[in-house]
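Quick one before lunch.
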Amino acid sequence: MLGKHKFDRRDGALVLAHVWVAFIALFLGGVAGLLQSLVRGGRIVLPAEIGYYQLLTAHGVLMALVFTTFFIIGFLYAGIAKTMGDNPGELSEPARRLGWIGFGMMSAGTAIATVMILLNKATVLYTFYAPMKADPLFYISLALVVIGSWISGFGIFIQYARWRKAHPGQKSPLFGFMAVTNMIMWLVATLGVAVEVVFQLIPWSLGWTETINVMLSRTLFWYFGHPLVYFWLLPAYMCWYVSIPKIIGGKIFSDALARLSFIMFLLFSIPVGFHHQLMEPGISSMWKYIQVVLTFMVIIPSLMTAFSLFATFELYGRSKGAKGLFGFFKKLPWGDVRFFAPFMGMLIFIPAGAGGIINASHQLNAMVHNTLWVTGHFHLTVATSVALTFFGITYWLVPHVMGRKLTKSMNTLGIWQTILWVVGMFFMSGSMHTVGLFGSPRRTAYTTYGDHPDAILWMPYHVAMAVGGTILFIAVILMFVNLFILMRAPKGEEEFPIGETAEEAAPTPAILERWGLWIGVVAVLILLAYTVPVLDMIRSDVPGSKGFITW
Ligand code: HAS
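Model of the heme-as complex:
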């Protein structure tokens, strides 16, 4: 019922504004990605003025930071308007206003950052690792993006608080609960990068301080950087948990399990940043060990999610007469892009997650760290599981908020777009993983290691990466075209799919919504995992704290 309500036009405009910025970033980032893969595949040499690292920075910032953040905030606003709006599909005035202020600040920050990158004044990669230094304007623009996203987050919290006030004693809608969890995680995580940018990078880039504590800056970055990946992932999980059951005609397996998995992400996604720094000096093995253990904890909610999705599919399949272990497979709506694109994301998340577990295993990390394996890993996770799910959402979200209909031909184009993406990624990420095991480094232009003894061995894989990159670029263009067509689709109604929980599911314990408790536990875990090592880093006598560190 909820899904059928009309969406308020003013809120539709807010959602569409976010979606547009996201897809423009995807397009520009795609151009940079194509060029990069052609350079590494030895197919082209960049014209003198363009640097490889400049492209790499543009690609990473636009795809990983801008596309995701804008899409996510637009999607969350749409979902809370739908499920917790003052009327279904209508935000309250304060939430809408904060949404626009946040959008304005993030867009201004993004525009300045993009110009600085294009001017080659911010070639510091998407992780902006010191001692690489950018123009102060770049860091200031990043601060603007972060503060803007906080303001958008407050809009979501306000809408949630209004809903709870109007519905005392009731459990919040699952989508709203998940949106709030995701934004709390984002707020706590971005504190790390805000401290790094405001207290280290900006004063240093302005020349107010002569040196920078490299180790500390990287640690603050990864304090933020790992929950960042779950900030990308959780909205995809929201689609998998809440929308996919409705799209296939089934039920959510368990509301309680879904909420518990999100709370576990909140608890365990932040105190794990050291697993990106396992090969770095200046952090003792004991602290690395503790954070590796916590990393293995954060795998559990993903396993719970896999279990829950299989259960949803199986229950649905059996209700349609499916027999045997995988009989449900035949009953799933393969021809519906709203299902097909996110499902391909799920399927690919199985090897992607396995790769993550390899990365997190300290000894194996020594083998893969800083090789193209890691690049392959995040092209499967964020650039496939998450991106394909976001594409799948776009096919119903845009028509829904605009009062239009997803047509049959549009659906077919969407299926082709998904197939192209999967094929392109098979070549690209597959060869990245393989050649990574042969030691080919990441974040390095091909020409810089031309005389490496293994370069001949790596070359065919780099060519395969270029093939994959080209197919993916065609898929980006098709997605962009699809978005234009969606905007002009015939007027009508497209559902915002919000699933219902299976009748047999156990009730949801109220404790899962005790935010004070969970934020308290998060704070304790962060203090436990970070206090001593950060104090060590601040004391400059620790070996390695100011030393040279590999990227
Ligand atoms: Fe990661 C590096 C560990 C998940 C993104 N990761 C990165 C980087 C990025 C990234 C961007 O421990 C590079 C950063 C840089 O530039 O340096 N990652 C993990 C672990 C997980 C993980 C343990 N990563 C992600 C996700 C990302 C992401 C998600 C983005 C969205 N990652 C690492 C480590 C590094 C790292 C180290 C540092 C490497 C280094 O040396 O620098 C886990 O969260 C993964 C758990 C996932 C699962 C899979 C569950 C499967 C599901 C699908 C079910 C499918 C169904 C379909 C139901 C356990 C839920 C039906 C299927 C049928 C067959 C019918």
